[in-house]
Predict the structure.
Amino acid sequence: MLAFLLRRISTALLVALTVSSLTFSLNFLSGDPAIALAGESATQEDLQTIREAYGYDKPIPVQYFNWLTGALQGDLGQSHYLNQPVADEIFQRLPTTMTLGLSALVFALVLSIPLGVLAAIRPNSLFDRFALTVAVVGQAMPSFWFALTMMLWFAINWRILPVSGSDTWLHFVMPSIALGYYITPGVMRLTRAGMLEVLRSDFIRTARAKGVSRFSLMFKHALRNAIIPVVSLAAVQFGFMLGGSIVIETIFAINGLGFLAWESIQRADLPMMQAIVLVLSFFYIALTFLADVLNAWLDPRIRIG
Amino acid sequence: MRPMYLALSASLLATTAMPAMAGKAEDTLNWATDKEVAVVDPYFSVTRELVIMGHMGWDGLVLFNNETGEFDPLLATSWEWKSNTEVEFDLREGVVFHDGSTFDADDVVYTINFLADEASGVPAQSVVNWMKSATKIDQYKVRLELVQPFPNAFAYLANEISIMPEGYYENSSIGADGTRDLSKVTPIGTGPYTVSDVRTGKYVNWAKNDQYFAGGPKGTPQIGNINFRTIGESNTQLAELMTGGLDWAWDVPKEQALRLEESGQVQVVNEKTLRISYLAFDVDGSSGQDYFTDQKVRAAFAHAINREAIAKELVGPASVAIHSACHPEQFACSQDVPHYDYNPEKAKALLAEAGYPDGFKFDLYGYREREFTEAVIGDLAAVGIQANLNWLQYSSLLEKVQNGETPVNHMTWGSSSIPDVAAITSHFFSGSSDDPAKDPRTAEALARGDTSVDPEVRKEAYQEALNIIAEEVYWLPMFTYAKYYVFSNDLDFTPTADEIPRLYEASWK
């Protein structure tokens, strides 16, 4: 088991570093980072000062090697734009993004799992068609448009929610819905499909014959089995939401990792971008791992397999 | 009972969820831009936000007066040029820094000598490297020595050189990569506002400096608090303006600004800026598309593009079409140069003379407002010239421009708010890699203007350079930019052309 864990962790590290090196290379395709840092009115002299100060005058492999050796020693460097240690900045903002991601996930699960279960109980019914419509609309609607529409109604017209910021829980209501709604269709359809399959299985028929109550049949016997792929999907989607919160954080002016990533890209703040990619990669990998463990707990057959 | 409960819940939610109503009621002016501000220091943060905040928290020796076009005394009360490279300043007495320490010559000497030393690490070297040193003559008199004659000295002193208390940067720690960790330096200046709270990248709150000296050109601050925060999305900024969460925003897109104006909920002002738009041609044919080595082709472009219409219809009422390679508001920016009026027929005739009666196809590069560039493309198409648009990030485009890879590029320049042609014409036509023509005649004339402090000598020299540029059409100057400002109906605020909003002069109606 220990060997398995070590193998998984080393693979995770390699994946994170590969992603990071790719991002590093791609960054240079968008132009000279010194120009992006200096702004539009910079002179050649200003640009040269910045190149020398930040090491952009060195070959790209040397720059990457320097960054990598620093990162392996726990030094993620200094943000060129914010003039702050990268690690401090990331850990200061991570809780905000985690709060947004978790609340969006809770919203998505609370909405999609009951919808999926209820749709499976009566397939092709009016409710089933309604649930499928919700799924189709969710998949078709861009999250930024949904976010702005909500803002128009809830913040401007009715004035019951704040427009932007992250000071209170109310500030997270619209962003969580906008972010969570995007993954709702996938989870709902998977729950529905899983429930339909499980409800047709022999052990459900047996349980029903033994007089197990309808609620217990659905939520204790059937859902526990149907939800296994949903757990994997939710874990992956949570990782996606942490990384994909860029748009939502930008729209709602939430001072999290997503907005920081957007700013860093705009400003060609390479140390910050590198670190954000690394952190998000680790989260993604860790969540996938966690999902495997959860699935093994839910279904003992996986442990044996 | 149930509907009542729901109504009660909804009203409770509405009460608690309403955004914090700041503005006049709480004597707090809220403003936002799309950029994060982490380090509140005008030298180590190269953003426009810090130029604005720099003027709120700090004072320079002089202040540019937008109405008179002159420099008013600020921390200096008077000055005298001792030679082309030496100027002596008498300093204002009775000024205190936010920490209570007294301002005097030692602070000026410290600030200038710190900046003049390249090892300071100030990224915008061009803003500071014209200063050689400062020497204390007595407690309220200093001598500033320049590296060489520099006509923009006062413009930089006014816009960019904030005076810090002696020893200000000494306690900042040095990071692993050699840069200073300025987050540990408490912002202290003599300005009309003092930093009351700051959270990295999220907000910077300012409070009125009750000790601010009387009788200065910045006046006496009226509004109790000025809070800045970052809102990356312009739609969100507008939503905050409409709901009272914000009192001031700028750079609002034209259509949105006009819609807001119709609503009557806010004031909307279109104000000129020092930024101009221009087309630069590949005069030496290095891009591989050598159409533009012929002056007739460049002149045909000038006649084909309806600059007036773009300025008025697309940019805004404060925008004007221009003819010389500078902004009309800048010192020595004469518009008395060869003009090319909008005349598509003349453009076609010039193209035929140049050997292109059926036009041609070329690559046009742009980066800023796509709709402006598309209008250019439309006008060119009307005379048979087909532009293939390449839309890039500024950093990518500038590299290509400097490498001579762009046949025509549609660019802009803001002159760092310096009201002098040296900040634009000299930058682009003195033979550097930014110079599309590298014409020795312009370089010589500009050098004459740049090394003199005699206004008449300078005007004459720049006129010569501007005439050559216009005659040869190395650039096609297009129009001045104009910005839409949107702010609360309760706010008394006047925007200025130099794009340094004087928020410290604002007051409530």
Q: What stands out?
A: Chain B has a mean pLDDT of 90.
